[in-house]
Design brief:
This protein is of the alpha/beta class and about 425 residues long. It is built from 18 helices and 13 strands. Helix 2 crosses helix 18 and helix 6 runs parallel beside helix 8.
Length: about 425
Amino acid sequence: MSAPRPCRIWIEVGDLLQYFREHSTPAGISRIQFEIIPRLLELFPGRISLFQIGRSSREIEVLTFDEVLRRCDNSAFLARFGHHRTLFNILQFASNHARAAISALRLQLNREGRARFAGEIQAGDVILNLGGSWSHQHFGRSIAELKRDFGVRFAVLIHDVLPLTHRQFVAARFAPFFDRWFDDMTRVWDLVLTPSHSTARALREQLELRGRAVPPIRRIRFGSGFCLPQHSLRECARTHVLYVSTIEIRKNHRLLFDIWKQMISDYGAARVPELVFAGKFGWQIDDLKRDLQATRFLDGKIRVVENLDDAELAALYRGSYFTVYPSFCEGWGLPVGESLHFGRYCIASDATSLPEVGAGFVDHHAPADIKAARRLIEAALFSPGHLDAKEAAIRASYVPRSWRETAGEIMAVISDTLGER
């Protein structure tokens, strides 16, 4: 009699596929998924399966990682895996008639996929969601049905609960979706992973406020940096200060605009380096956009770059004097860790999770304290030896965490908390 197979982890990737149907470069959550998933597959062959849920639990597709890449390959970001845009992606953006035909075909495949899924999943397996499943209207109900039908458990990575705790910084149209999703998750999760102690605390507080049971909550530490070809790792001339982030109200770009404007006035434009905003324009920043345009981006001292691939982003990190991250609130703060990974000092706010990411190598200020932020920035720019000392400390003592380690920790936490059945 053969021994029962080990618990399998079924990673639901529907939100990841949806994201890359609409975007060409990743945001934080999609980048995290594409860092973790291939490493889980590499470390635990035969124990990781990928699937997506359609409109309900009756519509399921079991997918290989290559199939996920092909579905997402309108993205320049995915060139890191050797994939490029295909005819399938072009058809996805074709006429209404073509889109309807593709949807009908996808539904047929999903019905067949449910049978395949039912034949492979076993009681005691774990469904894992690493992304932003709040975009799926019936995700919670579908998970509940799959748990009932197959005797599986459900683990979810909660990146943050900012739509509940910092609603003023969230797009108004998004908040109701998150509220519904969060309520649904409280009914189905068996294990919650979070990237920071800050998010774990906020989650517990929100559950207690709502009178909901608190599930096992485990912090898993994210990796830093990303894989690049060797030629992309060369040092280059330093020309700018860098802020990697979507340009939205929560990220506090206004503080940096005001500081740069003041420094140009006080020191002269020649002494103040370029400030690079690497990210797309987002929401609730009309006043900032007006001021950027009215001042001609501070006469060229601020530059905005979008849709960067990994090599281009790495070049910006390596070409920076240092980085800044004055966000009002975060669930983690990937670019702070990326900055340290590339050996660059970072000046960040002290809000929510950011001191955890900084690990003692980052200097912090209150997000609304423009004077404190300016003092730190001026010290890095104008105090002899200051920046060299900061970078020397990073080189000597900072130990970057790999995404492979993150993947291993996720599997260990799932095994330890949910166990084998």
